[in-house]
Amino acid sequence: MEEVIDSPPKAQFDTFLDQHRAMLDACLDGLTEEQARRSLVPSRTTLLSLVKHATFVEKVWFDEAVTGRPRAEIGIPATPDESFILTDADTIGSVLAAYRAACAASRRATADLTLDDRLTGNRRGPLPLRWVYLHMLRELAQHCGHADILREQILKQ
Questions:
Q1: How far is residue 122's CA from residue 132's CA, in Å, rounded to a whole number?
Q2: Contact predicate 117/10, CB 8 Å
Q3: Is the pLDDT assigned to residue 39 strictly greater than 90?
Q4: In CATH, what number is assigned to the domain containing residue 86?
Q5: What tens digit of pLDDT does each residue of 102-112 get?
Q6: What pLDDT, on the 0 to 100 scale, is given for residue 7?
Q7: Is residue 21 one of the residues assigned to a domain?
Q8: Which of 144, 55, 34 is nearest to 98 (CA)?
């Protein structure tokens, strides 16, 4: 942890993002397909749909915002709510593979950027990478909390 404390701010952001990404990835460890899809709340939120949504979020903030490409071209839903919809083709393996690929693409997209670089492709207008990183940390932390609670409930059943 000491190396993170003394590292440049962007490296600190990258480290914390990757820790949250790994926590969300791990929420599916050891589960059956049924457990990963089990619905415990009235919304579309399941462990599998949380990871699928996180893939969408990575692509919104680190593809759309960086490149300006439209969501249809990227191949993601138009709205966040739609990103929780699971299809029959969605499995633990396929959703994790897509999530890991999106995270790797996010790392590549931001590797040469500074925290003050402006991302111009977001619908809100130009935003500094620092703001995007903070938004992503908040988003991932929230979903990691959801995942912890859902996983605990699933494993108790």
A1: 10
A2: no
A3: yes
A4: 1.20.120.450
A5: 999 999 999 99
A6: 86
A7: yes
A8: 55
Could you tell me the CA-to-CA distances from 29 to 33, 43, 60, 147, 149 in Å, in that order? 11, 22, 25, 12, 15
3-state DSSP assignment of residue 27: coil
Output DSSP code: residue 117.
Answer: P
pLDDT, tens digit, for every residue of 26-36? 999 999 999 99
Which of 95, 97, 113, 21 is closest to 58 using CA atoms?
Answer: 21
Running DSSP on this structure, what letter comes out for residue 119? E
Q: Which residue has the tokens 């899809």?
A: 37
Domain membership flag for residue 2:
no
- What's the predicted TM-score (pTM) here? 0.94
Domain that holds residue 53: 8-156
For CA atoms 36, 40, 46, 50, the dihedral sign is negative
Number of domains present in the structure of the chain: 1
What span, in angstroms and rounded, lies between the C-alpha atoms of 82 and 90? 14
- The answer to whether residue 1 is domain-embedded is no
Residue 58 located in a structural domain: yes
Residues in contact with 15: Cβ distance below 8 Å, sequence separation at least 6, in sequence order? 4, 7
